[in-house]
Design brief:
The chain is of the alpha/beta class. Helix content is 34%, strand content 20%. A hairpin with a 4-residue loop joins strand 4 and strand 5. The mean pLDDT is 91.
Length: 196
C-alpha cells in the first residue's frame, strides 16, 4: 500500500506488540490503530507513544450506550452513559468510555478513533452526544465513526459533535457519495477541509 498510495494511511486490527507496530511503520504505515490490545495492556499505549511518537499512535474506542434502567448506576463525573466494548464491539469491558478516553490521552496517544457501536452501519447519523462529550474532555483530535449516511451527518459530527475528523465506509464503498463530494459540501458549509 505504501508504494501505491500518496496519502497518509493508518493500519489497525490485531496489533498487540511493539514489534508488530515497528514492522508496520517500517513497511510504510503512517499511523497505527490499537483497540482491544490497549484495553488488555494499557502500557502498550505509553510504550508505543514513547517509541514511535504520539503522532503515530491512534487508539480506538468502540462505545455503546449503557442500559441504565437495568443497572444501579447514576451518571456522575466518574460514570458516563457509555461503556467501552472490545473485539469489534462484541465484548463488554466495564470501562467507562469518557474515563478511558482521558486515560488514553494521558498515556500519550496522539488521536482517538471513536465509534458508536449503536449507530455503526445504520447511516442514521453519528452519535453526537457521545462525540461531543468525548471531544470536550480531550485535547487530542477525535475522529467520529459510526452512522454517517448523509452530507448533513458529516457536518453535524464536526460542528455539534465537535469531532476533528470523520470516518465513513459504506457510503463510499457503495458509491453513495465520493470523498470529494463530501469535502465539497463541508467546504460550502464553512468547514475547513484538506484539499488533496
Amino acid at each position: 500500500m505504501a508504494r501505491e498510495l500518496f496519502i497518509p494511511f493508518t493500519i489497525g486490527g490485531g496489533i498487540s506488540t511493539l514489534n508488530e507496530i515497528y514492522s508496520l511503520v517500517k513497511a510504510g504505515a503512517d499511523k497505527i490503530t490499537i483497540n482491544s490490545s490497549a484495553i488488555h495492556n494499557p502500557n502498550l499505549i505509553t510504550e508505543s507513544a514513547e517509541r514511535f511518537g504520539s503522532q503515530c499512535i491512534v487508539v480506538a474506542i468502540d462505545a455503546r450506550k449503557r442500559n441504565l434502567k437495568s443497572q444501579q448506576h447514576q451518571i456522575t463525573d466518574n460514570f458516563s452513559k457509555w461503556e467501552v466494548f472490545s473485539h469489534g464491539g462484541s465484548h463488554s469491558t466495564g470501562l467507562d468510555a469518557v474515563a478511558w478516553a482521558k486515560e488514553i490521552e494521558s498515556r500519550g496517544a496522539g488521536e482517538l478513533l471513536l465509534t458508536s457501536m449503536d449507530a455503526d452501519g445504520h447511516q442514521d447519523g453519528f452519535e453526537l452526544e457521545l462525540t461531543a462529550t468525548i471531544s470536550g474532555s480531550l485535547n487530542i483530535p477525535v475522529i467520529a465513526s459510526g452512522g454517517g449516511g448523509t452530507f448533513e451527518h458529516f457536518r453535524d459530527a464536526l460542528t455539534i459533535g465537535k469531532a476533528d475528523a470523520v470516518l465513513a465506509a459504506s457510503v463510499f464503498h457503495y458509491e453513495k457519495y465520493t470523498v470529494s463530494e463530501v469535502k465539497e459540501y463541508l467546504s460550502e458549509n464553512s468547514i475547513p477541509v484538506r484539499k488533496v
